[in-house]
């Protein structure tokens, strides 16, 4: 009997395991049918050129699992009843994006099914302007971080256990509270700080706790589209309020005739335009929230990176009321895969937010919390931010100078001299898709800002250019290639 078994002598997988897998698959696929007589261990060993002990070992495993059976004085056979008929190999059905009629998703699930997630990362062009908000990874002190992680690993085994406090590692919360008080003028105690897995989880937790079907959320337009997706997934109605050079146009809130539950803002560096909310508008927003009972959700995602002046103090620090929930993250100042962020919530909300965090995932990784605590307390965070502020300012200047040099009046640069990206408008007849496709053909990645607008047409010609992880030469070359595209497209 020729079983057409494939064994790799040079493989790191033992021969007996390879033979077991091959025979089991042959049985499950139907190449070896129920009741079929198996070759003797001696003859199979001779056919395959392996030891009889190897065959015996594989047969014994298959016998013990019920794939083979023995008949005294007759031999070994494929079992008539396999241990699990459901294990039979069949061609996998194609994955469908629709659901069978018997499956009824919740309103939350049904909304999520319509959300278009970003594509899986593939081979990116050399000049990637599309990764806005990405830090300069090669400038991060990875050797120092490795040392801090190693130090944390030498602690007692309790670091491997479930943490007792769902709010997060207390020394880290103390370090964050001290940092926020000094650098962002946030009013908080360590007991108000809750460690979360990035700002995205913070948004999700607050949306779950505050929003019911039909509640209204005010958002900047354009604004952070992933926050909009979260609010809409909870069944909320998003009310877009336009922004200008001074940020959210707060006066328009007074024209709303329906109650608002949440106001989501990025006041220190508006996403994606880069505008800073003026002091007068900050005070007006706080007064409006106090009068209406709306909660303000302040996302302070990359406020550390202002280049002409000191970072603008947080909105939260301007009020003694409990109308502001503050969100911060280390994804921008350190690195995204750390997945470490934090919420600062009013004292009366701490217990319910802690319960929500505990139900979602119990806690954020404790080992990284220990390392991050030392990173902050030993002064490495402030030192790193200072170095990155200088570096990012230089790279942003390079981008602006290159845009002016190569494109001139073909481009408008939008936003303040701050943040990790620039928003630009190309004055061109090409659609955003055509512009992105032509850029990709020339080795440049572009991301349209259309998704940031409630009406995508309003963002036509707008693009987000990330520059913080690109050196000056790459930035200049990328802009030069974009200029060639625009010049070639002119009639």
What does this entry show, briefly?
The protein is an alpha/beta fold and 491 residues long.
Please explain how this structure is put together.
The protein has 3 domains: 15-87, Arc Repressor Mutant, subunit A; 127-132 and 388-489, Alpha-Beta Complex (Aspartate Aminotransferase, domain 1), CATH 3.90.1150; 141-382, Type I PLP-dependent aspartate aminotransferase-like (Major domain) (Aspartate Aminotransferase, domain 2, 3-Layer(aba) Sandwich), CATH 3.40.640. Helix 1 (15-29) crosses helix 3. With 491 residues, it is an alpha/beta fold. Strand 8, helix 9 and strand 9 (295-299) form a beta-alpha-beta unit. Mean pLDDT is 88; it is low at 86-95. It contains 14 helices and 16 strands. Strands 4-11-10-9-8-5-6-7 form an 8-stranded mixed sheet, with helices on both faces. It has a 4-stranded antiparallel sheet with strand order 12-13-16-15, with helices on one face. The N and C termini lie far apart (74 Å).
What keywords describe this structure?
16 strands, Aspartate Aminotransferase, domain 2, 491 residues, 3 domains, Arc Repressor Mutant, subunit A, four-stranded antiparallel beta sheet
Give the proportion of residues in helices.
25-40%
Mean pLDDT: 88
**Which strand order do you get reading across the main beta sheet?**
4-11-10-9-8-5-6-7
Q: Do you know the CATH architecture of the largest domain? A: 3-Layer(aba) Sandwich
Count of helical segments?
14
Strand element count: 16
- The outline comes out as globular
- Total domain count: 3
N-to-C SSE series?
A: HHHEEHEHHEHEHEEEHEEEHHHEEHEEEH
Report the portion of residues in β strands: 5-15%
End-to-end C-alpha gap: 74 Å
Secondary-structure class: alpha/beta
Largest sheet: 8 strands, mixed
- Top CATH class of the largest domain: Alpha Beta
Low-pLDDT parts are 86-95
Task: Kindly identify the CATH topology of the largest domain.
Answer: Aspartate Aminotransferase, domain 2
Name of the CATH superfamily of the largest domain: Type I PLP-dependent aspartate aminotransferase-like (Major domain)
Kindly provide the radius of gyration, computed on alpha-carbon positions and rounded to a whole number of angstroms: 30 Å
